[in-house]
Design goal:
single chain; about 180 residues; globular
Length: about 180
Amino acid sequence: MKHTPKAGTYDGSIQGLSQEEWLIQIMDLYQDKVIRLAYTYVKDRKLAEDLAQEVFVKCFVHKESFRSESSVKTWVYAITVNLCKDYLRSGWKKYIHVIDRLGKSKQSPSLTPELTIVQKSEHEALADEVLRLPLKYREVILLYYYKELSVLEISHVLNKKEPSIRTLLQRGREMLRRKMEKGR
């Protein structure tokens, strides 16, 4: 059952909400996005769902430490990224490569069935290549293009300076361009 956020509380205002209401609000707003973001790191849907639950537990436990220096979205994504990195560094991880579509390609009504198939195939090839990038490039590409975060927001999420994020984006794009040209 979806709960609608109280007026004036959309995306971050935690004033006047009980902890339970606040948690319900951020889960409604970010649960699917957190699962997809976690999936891009661990490449296992069930594990991504488990990690998302941990993210929201951490949000609940550390709600009072949120200082409103960034948006709630950025804070939730930072927790997700850090939790995924911790998981990947741990000795008990199992890294299973399962391709999940990172985003549905927007289909224009004027596309023929043939062009739609070609577009879908190209999108899947690009998604495969993004998932094969080294983690430092993959995470900035995913946060920028798939999660539509700004360079500033990505710098907060990853705790890196903006010029570093720009450099990683540029190098990641170049790596993708070369891989896609090689595949043609």
